[in-house]
Structure formats: C-alpha cells, structure tokens
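I am writing to request your help with a piece of structural work I have in hand. Here, with my thanks, is the record as I have it:
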Amino acid sequence: MGTRLDSPEAQAAEVVDRLSVEYPDTTISLRFSNRLELLIAVILSAQCTDERVNQETEHLFAKYDGPEEYANADQEELAEDLSSITYYNNKAGYIREACGIIVEEHDGEVPDTMSKLTDLPGVGRKTANVVLQHGHELVEGVVVDTHVQRLTRRLGITEERSPEKIERVLMELLAREDWQDFTHLCISHGRATCTARNPDCSECVLEDVCPSSKLDSEVDLASGEAW
C-alpha cells in the first residue's frame, strides 16, 4: 500500500535516503573528457538517450578538437556527423553558434555562470546546471529532466509540471548537498524500476510511500491518467 509521508519535505528526504542505498554509485552517464565535450554532449542529449549520444560523441570528439573547429565546421558536414541524433540539424547549428560565442566572448573557455551559459544557443537552465555541476563543480540548482519530472509527480513531491517550477520546489525541499545527487538517483530509478509506461511497483523500494503505486492506486500522478 502506497501512502505519501506527511509533508513534501519528509517525502523528498525519504526518497533521497532510500535511493541512495539502492544506487550508491550513481552519476552522470554521458561520456566527456573536458568542459566543452560535456557542453556538447548535454546539448545533444535533449530528447535523445544518453546511450545514443555516447555512441555519436565517440567519433565526434575524435574528429573535432576545440571550440574553433566546431565554430568553423561546415553546417551540413557537422549535421551529417550527428545524423542519428534527434533534431540533429538544429543541434549542429546550436553547437557551431555556441562555440563561436565561446571563442569570441569567452577566450575559448566554457563559461562558469548560469547567465553566461544560458546565453549560449541551445543551452537552457537544465543544460547549464549539468555543465556547472560536472564541469565546474558548482551546484546552483537541480537538474530537472524527464525522469525527475515523472518521479517527483508520481511520488507526490510536487504537482508542478514545468521543469522550472519543479526545480524551484526541489530547491526549497531538498538539502543543498542533495541537489546534484537527487537527479542521478531519479534517473537511475527511472531507468531501472520506475519507468514511464510500465513501472515495476512490486520491486520498488519506494512502493510503500508512493501514492501512485499500481498495487494500491488507480491513477498515475505523473500523467494524471489511469493505469
């Protein structure tokens, strides 16, 4: 039987505690060796799996070296290099333009502030948070991807739908030292157990505190629809 704890704060803390035991070594799954590669990988990961991105960046990072080469790359050639990635034409343009700005305005270095990062084409707050956390070791917010959106609603932590509003809620509920790990814990659990279409509630370590549990509830709070 899934019953949410008395407050969103208690619910969020319980989720962190249990998932930290279940996934003690969880971390970012994108592969990169420097800040620019991280930035490019995160831009490419929008509406695309990390696994697919890692497959493409393996040859991409071997071909292009530094922001100047990306900025000066032929648009059609770069797009072709990304052709198995969703929205590859748009993303090729974002990468070229962002690298041009990095060269011209930031001395070839990936910026280290939220405002300067989000000024780059193709970079929203989620992407900027990832780059700050894993490229600069600066934690200014909570990365809200599709797994975080789904789990926070499904677990009754928030009823908000937009990533921006969910992030604000989580920044208030979570201890600051948990902001970074919370995302990775949600991603790991979302992939392993609490999947979008067919979560395995019978094997879930959070089932007893989940108001969306299929063992007890008729409605998935993430979507608002019946199971």
About this structure: The chain has two domains: 8-26+143-226, 35-135. DSSP finds eleven helices and two strands in the chain.
